[in-house]
Design brief:
mainly alpha, Four Helix Bundle (Hemerythrin (Met), subunit A), 0% strand, globular
Length: 184
């Protein structure tokens, strides 16, 4: 593990925070094909999420700051886009509240672990799968394609199940202390 800050993977992770600006602009501003443009920006954001982790491992650039920037960028991106979708009425408000509350709790738990154990907890795989499913749900909501409405509904409920599952695993880390000493 390296202590460098300005690595390719960290810069890609940080760029996801700024992708929120064109994402919001494209969704909230009426212009021809604005939802397709928004979908394109979402695809770029998701691609950078996979790319930063891949490059960090491939280039041996896994850093403590990267373990913080990546999930924070995810939470900022998902949270901001959730608010945008709430403004447009494309996602139920209860779902948005669920997503935001879960992310706040996970971030708070991570800060608690970092403060008390002096380690940066890594994301768990169910959490990563959950974020991917939420992104698919948001993507489908953005497109508003009637033929995909049932897939959107399935994706929304699958996201809820995955968020509960990953939250349970995070809670075990925090409350029960399971694997907390093995977090790297």
């Amino acid at each position: 593990m390296t202590h460098r800050y300005f690595t390719v993977s960290n810069l890609i992770s940080a760029s996801r925070i700024f992708i929120v600006i064109p994402m919001g602009y494209c969704l909230l501003t009426e212009f021809p094909h604005h939802r397709l443009w928004t979908a394109g920006v979402i695809i770029i954001a998701v691609a950078t999420d996979f790319l930063d982790g891949f490059l960090a491992r491939k280039l041996h650039q896994v850093t403590e700051i990267g373990k913080i920037i990546d999930p924070v960028a995810d939470k900022i991106g998902i949270g901001a886009y959730a608010v945008f979708l709430a403004i447009t009425g494309d996602i139920p408000l209860w779902f948005i509240i669920f997503v935001l509350l879960r992310d706040i709790l996970i971030l708070s738990g991570g800060l608690y672990i970092h403060h008390n154990k002096k380690i940066v907890p890594q994301s768990n795989w169910p959490g990563k799968i959950s974020v991917t499913c939420i992104a698919v749900t948001f993507f489908l909501a953005t497109l508003r394609i009637d033929a995909l409405r049932s897939f959107f509904t399935f994706s929304l409920w699958l996201s809820v199940v995955l968020m509960i599952w990953s939250s349970w695993i995070y809670a075990q880390r925090l409350i029960i202390g399971r694997n907390i000493d093995n977090i790297k």
